[in-house]
Amino acid sequence: MLDIKFIRNNIELVRQAIHNKNEKADLDALLEIDEQRRKLQFAFDNLKAYQNSVSALIAQKKKTGDNIENELKAMTNTAEAIKAISAHLSIVNEKLEKMLLTIPNIPQADVPVGRDESSNKIVKIWGEPKQFPFTPKDHLELASQNKLLDLPRGAKISGSGFPLYTGEGARIERSLINFMLEYHLQKHNYTELIAPVIVNRKTMTGTGQLPKLEEDMYRIEKDDLFLIPTAEVPVTNIFADEVLSYKDLPKQFVAYTPCFRREAGSYGKETKGLQRLHQFNKVELVHFTEPEKSAAALEQILSDAEDILQAFNLHYRVAALCTGDLSFASQKTYDLEVWAPGTGKYLEVSSVSNFGEFQARRANIRYKDKTGKVKHLHTLNGSGVATPRLLIAILETYQTEDGSINLPAVLEPFLHLIL
RNA sequence: GGAGAGUUGCCGGAGUGGUUGAACGGGACGGUCUCGAAAACCGUUGUAUCUUUUUACAGGUACCCAGGGUUCGAAUCCCUGACUCUCCGCCA
User: DSSP for A261-276?
Assistant: First the structure.
């Protein structure tokens, strides 16, 4: 969330950001509540100060045995007034807190302004679409011919969008996860985490999924817990309510988790095969940095994710998202889109974002800088990368005319581990 | 799931109703001393928020797991919840 003081001092900037992000948030109502809150707080503080001073007097008089009847009488009224005002204050505080959670992060100045993805800017293209001397099949045909997937049975046991990987398909999927983890560990200096995939409401609020996206998540009602849509959620929250030292920063973690998304309302939209799933696997990169270093960290995460695609020699492009396509919590985001020759489309396999102090403020993650000042740090993350679409690109790119798959050599050691 | 114990500042640990933001010890930081270091001694050691013109300084308020309650007054008493630990049961 944004600092209420910042909002107060930059009303038009915030209003603009809400508009450019296609968000709905009642800024004026928020400012009015804030005004109310400050007035009440002031009154409350003054009453308390009075109460405290008389209390001290009572204590003193009691010691010396003086009469305290007058003081006690006055205090009864004061105590009542304090009770009334503090009840009001806590209602107002709660309201303000709730409203603050609906204000989106502000896009950085270099983010292109636009309503939707048509305004995204392609900032980089790597490699070129592979040419085939035959008509390339799409991943569904290839998967079925090679018995890599059994989607009907996945649908039977869970529902559509819950893929069942079979035999070699499962093995390839597992190898991909393992390859990416080891790559980031060994070449990019990350620390690996295995995190819970079910988290509580506070955690979901910390990274900004709640309150906005409650409908998009799987929820365990009985315990009020949620299945994570991305490892970003548990990993970013590991330092919630903590104060780190600048000496600990930057911290960079890599975590593999399954991800769960209800994808409410997206049926019929790119749902074919593995393109859009309710459960999928993803290796996620998360950074915690000092504020001055987050811009560079964003470029680094992007490059770390790109390395994976390059290792597989897959053609891809990088898009800088426009304001309207930025997520609620993001200041700036790059999408990595890999070319799937059989499907004939670029598929998003990674989203790399800088959240500034937005998430840190929500989750209350702070650090002590060199001068001893306590400040909110910056959080970033990027997929490194999501497997289903990566698998699509690999199958479709490395198919042969007879429909078999000639997997890239870098995967070999992971596919056939020696026991 | 049942029974019990606990949760205080960077850490350890006092504190069971009245100037306690919190004794005492340790750590860390600064200073004196020293060629330098150790030891010793002295000092400092929180976060949030409000008031004042921004800041600085100063002052007010809140915070002793969280939320309620009792009281003129709560770290201290009562209730609820979270978490940790121990024992029993169950279990991959």
Answer: ---TT-TTSS-STTSS
Query: Residue holding tokens 């011919």?
Result: A145
What pLDDT was estimated at residue A322? 97
Q: What are phi and psi of A102, to 5 degrees?
A: -100, 0
Which nucleotide, over all strands, has the C1' atom closest to the CA of A53? Answer: B19
What tens digit of pLDDT does each residue of A178-194 get?
999 999 999 999 999 99
CB A59 within 7 Å, strand B: yes
Task: Return the CATH architecture of domain A4-100.
Answer: Orthogonal Bundle (1.10)
Residues A335 and A325: their CA atoms lie apart, in Å, by 10
Q: Where are the domains of chain A?
A: 4-100, 117-415
Distance between CA atoms of residues A381 and A232, nearest Å: 7
Share the mean pLDDT of chain A.
Answer: 93
Q: What's the pLDDT score for residue A132?
A: 97
Q: Is the CB of A76 under 7 A from strand B?
A: yes
DSSP string, A367-416: EE-TTS-EEE-EEEEEEEEEHHHHHHHHHHHTB-TTS-B---GGGHHHHS
Residue A223: what pLDDT?
Answer: 83
Q: The sheet that has A219-220: what strands, in order across it?
A: A198-200, A225-227, A219-220
**SS3 breakdown of chain A: % helix, strand, coil, rounded to 5?**
45, 20, 35
Nucleotides of B under 7 A from a protein CB: 18-19, 46-51, 60-62, 68-69, 71-73
Average confidence (pLDDT) per 10 residues, chain A, 419 residues: 91 94 93 91 91 88 81 86 89 89 95 96 97 96 96 94 96 97 97 93 92 90 90 94 87 96 74 89 96 96 98 98 96 98 96 96 89 89 96 97 96 89
In this structure, is the CB of residue A49 within 7 Å of any atom belonging to strand B? Answer: yes
- Residue A17 is given by DSSP the state H
Q: How far apart are CA A348 and CA A306, in angstroms?
A: 12
User: Left, alpha or beta for A320 (phi > 0: left; psi -120 to 50: alpha)?
Assistant: beta
Answer left, alpha or beta for residue A226, where phi above 0 means left and psi between -120 and 50 means alpha: beta
Identify the CATH class of A117-415.
alpha beta
ipTM of the complex: 0.86
